[in-house]
Write a structure and sequence with these properties.
The chain is an alpha/beta fold. It has two domains: about 210 residues, Rossmann fold; about 80 residues, CobW-like, C-terminal domain (Hypothetical Protein Yjia, Chain: A,domain 2, 2-Layer Sandwich). It is built from 14 helices and twelve strands. The longest helix is centred in the N-terminal third of the chain and has 15 residues. The protein starts with a strand and ends with a helix.
Length: about 375
Amino acid sequence: MTIVTKIDIISGFLGAGKTTLIKKLLSEAFQSEKVVLIENEFGEIGIDGGFLKEAGVEITEMNSGCICCSLVGDFGTALEKVINDYHPDRVIIEPSGVGKLSDVIRAVEGVGEKIDIILNSYTAVVDGQKCKMYMKNFGEFFNNQVEHAKTIILSRTQKMSDDKLKECLAMLKEHNPKATIVTTSWDDINGMKILNAMEKENDFVLKLLEEEHEHHHHHDHEEHEHHQDHGDDCTCGCHDHEEHHHHDHEEHEHHHDHDHGPDCTCGCHDHDHDHHHADDVFMSWGCEDARKYDRAQMQMTLDMLSHSDEYGIILRAKGMVPDTEGGWIYFDLVPGEVELRDGEPDITGRLCVIGSELNEAKLAELFGVN
């Protein structure tokens, strides 16, 4: 009997909580299954794999950029190899935080023509507290994940007021009225209930696959004109961070009133893409570092990174380093929020910072890296 492997795509913008959700699902919903995780980190230094090794999950890390742009070939090979070598019941794909969910779905569809897999779920994890900010400043990438998700799982809702949660839901439903949205705090809900929401069947899934297929094979001029509408749902990047401080209507018209000639940089010539590649907008800085770090000093360093703009626009920092007092410090940073915790020793210390307009020299100086 042939095993048909389920494929679950768990997307989410930088720092949304994808890895935390996957760990919860592994411990509460997938205990009896053989699961393989394929990660696609943005940046040269892979970090999250270390967080998941303790769960006994096979991890294939691909750190060369966004899954759709530079890894379509590698991704297909990796997925085929995983299926053929491990014969898993389920493969979880965790795309880069700046990956476009539509592209990941398309890549999986391509592999599905060769091996026995079923697209089981496509989920977007959304940090409820930062939904408005990311939608405004990084809409091209953030909105794509929201719009193509079958299920949207909100994180950090326990920290939100009822009004803020209501506002967040309204924005999400505007972009995706048919998705199932999970709003309950993860501490109050079992992973199996979350999985049930992810696997909930609806017509939206079939419609989405049909639309993706049509888009992929019939990307004509008329469709391109539709995408260049520059309305509230525009994904050309006109709402990106580079303009959000001084972005009035006049500037908007000036910036986008062009004829899409050969020198156009809006991304209209990118292969099967809506506009920009992640590499055009986001940067990463990271290193392997064997030095021991003082916990209090690391806290100060991360606080400075979180609240100062001299290092660039910081969207995510994470890492694992040896502690001067023994043990290991694992850290996570998203805008306005820093977490340090104890973790298992790894083969060496690693640091990774993701954002835009990063000042690499300043970052190296901040962390004391030569």
